[in-house]
Specification:
Layout lengths: L1 H6 L2 E12 L8 E11 L19 H9 L6 H16 L6
Antiparallel strand pairs: 1-2
Length: 96
Amino acid sequence: MELAQETGLRTARLAPLGTLTAAHGMSTQQCYYFLATELTPGAPDPEPEEIGIRTAWFSRDEFEEMTHDGRITDDSTLAAYALLLLAERRGDLLDR
């Protein structure tokens, strides 16, 4: 799993957030988004092209400020956050 490989974090629970097309109109490739909870730290095991990747924790307020001021521009990251907000609003994550 990418989470463990890139961050060292292992998860006991994955809640599906949604599926989105990666390049709508150009490809049929899909991305599957999940919320990982009940995390346990461990050692990352990055692939060669991922060596040197940095990870950090941010509060939601910090994340939203980073989005607002242009430090976060990655569409997959923003799509995942939007799916999380929608799932929370609907209450989809309460019983998982």
